[in-house]
Recover the amino acids of this structure.
């Protein structure tokens, strides 16, 4: 089973609308990804902050849950949005390399260039969210096979 993921920049009050959306990146600025689960997001969080997995995972409790087979929405903490927004090109490459070497990405055979591309897109989205005073949300919808 795969996961369809949209990561968007939106206002806090848009959480429910994001959760009810069929395709959030059509309605908000964002990126589409596949198979980015909570573990991968928490791993990025840990790389950016130095926190342990046990502590970081609590920051990603769902802010919206839709039924049994519907989407779940997570809010990326402001600290992570700020860190992503502040990454320079060289730091983006370093984070991409380190992230690609983690168990979560290696287990799913993610090519290093795809992980780097993801970090670049997240940094750009974080800069947009930061400049507009918005938060970043992760909309995850399981793909039933």
């Amino acid at each position: 089973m795969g996961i369809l993921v949209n990561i968007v920049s939106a206002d806090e009050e848009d959480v429910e609308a994001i959760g009810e959306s069929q395709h959030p990146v059509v309605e908000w600025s964002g990126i589409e990804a596949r198979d980015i689960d909570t573990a991968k997001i928490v791993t990025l969080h840990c790389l950016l902050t130095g926190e342990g997995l046990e502590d970081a995972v609590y920051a990603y409790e769902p802010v919206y849950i839709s039924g049994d087979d519907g989407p779940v929405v997570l809010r990326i903490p402001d600290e992570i949005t700020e860190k992503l927004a502040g990454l320079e090109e060289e730091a983006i490459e370093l984070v991409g390399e380190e992230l690609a070497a983690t168990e979560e990405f290696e287990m799913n055979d993610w090519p290093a260039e795809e992980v780097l591309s993801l970090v670049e897109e997240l940094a750009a989205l974080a800069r947009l969210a930061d400049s507009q005073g918005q938060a970043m949300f992760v909309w995850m919808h399981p793909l039933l096979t």
The radius of gyration is 14 Å. The domain at 2-143 is CATH 3.40.1760 (Hypothetical protein yfbM fold).
